[in-house]
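Researcher: Next entry: Phytochrome-like protein cph2 (Clostridium gelidum).
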Amino acid sequence: MNKVKRIYSTKQYKLKLINFDKSKFIESIYRKQKIKIEKQGRLIAKYDILTKLPNSVYFFEKLNNTLEKIKINNKKGAVIYIDIDDYKVINNNLGYCLGDSILKLFSELINRCIGECSELTRLNGDEFAILVHEFDNIRQIEEICNEIYKNLKKPLKIMDDKVHISVSMGISIFPDNSINADELLRFCNFAMHKSKHEGKSTYTVFNNEALDTYYREALIKSELKSVINRQELDIFYQPQINSLNNNIVGMEALLRWNNAKLGRVSPAEFIPIAENTGDIIKIGDWVIDKVLRQAFIWRNKGYKFDTISVNISPIQMRKIDFKENLLNLCAKYNVPPNFLEIEITECTLIDICKEKIEVLNELMESGINIAIDDFGTGYSSLSYLINIPINTLKIDKTFIDNIKNYKSKALIKSIVELSKDLKYKIITEGVETKDQINLLADLGCNIIQGFYFSKPLPMYEMELLLENNSKIEQ
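Model: Predicted structure:
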């Protein structure tokens, strides 16, 4: 009986082989493989490879679906925008592999902090967003943020390293703030930047006041596009005085903007916006051209001063032809390079890579002076003074305001002694009183820039001052 079954089975198998269609079999395998690849493609299109979180494309799809449901059930939802503070510095110090490990651990930590009605997304780089599909009270959103900060008090453990990180967050509420997905994310981003400006490691809820600020920023962005064509920019000059003889030794060129719609806009407000939009490039080029042209005119009139300084944005320094443009403009206006001093803020030092240090070295070799502005207020260490070529340190006004304080005085003294050893010129900014002048003189600070001698002046007033100064010297 068993033998009969085996024979039958073998015959059946042979029959199957005879009826086997090879092309259909291959087509079936191909079809299954294609479905599998398409499925993987859809997953890759919607999920971040590193963290396995939904990506920005999928985030907007989910947010738009939630916005549609909100219209029907009359509920509220929220978007919490998260940015890791100083992530660039972490990446530079630890390397990109550890940086990626941080992002993975960070996403796992955040996922443990959010509830069932929320989803975490990696938008881009170190930027994440939590979509809260619905909530009843704003306190629920605040609890999520506070839970994140509570968990971030402990360092992330990566192999043998312990890394402390902090985050800044911005929150927008729908439908209160908007029912448009793009706008909600922009509002979040704006609120997050406000958190950064207020000291980082905090969250900001977007509100009507922030909305006014947002629309003002949008107007500034729009108006900056044609600011040069409308001839709304102007250069003011603040003299730098040697307090030993009251002679002008230099001046700083300061940008001013007076707009028909906005009125006078502070550089502290419009420069960061111009840097974000890239408009700082054309504005910066205009400033350098205007300043060197004016320096040429004043030198031809025989006015006495050693340097004229211009503030440079790190965005300008990223241009490949930055050094070439500076030297070409000096040649164009027949201004010796050592007449020009470029000022970079201490915070800019973080963004200066090895290639840009080489550019600064080349500029210094060409004769152009380099000054560090706001020294003592940023994040830099003394190692920057070794690695970056510098001619001048400008001590920030915050130290001068508290010069009678023992600690401030001791710090100024240390900076002065260090600068003498390194052969740097020292300029003190924001000097307003005779007492400050006398105390600075005792510390060896004689080059003064501040309201005590002069506020920033329009071109024609600065020219009168230079004319009088030149007569005194004669």
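Model: Note for the record: Residues 55 and 460 are 56 Å apart (CA to CA).
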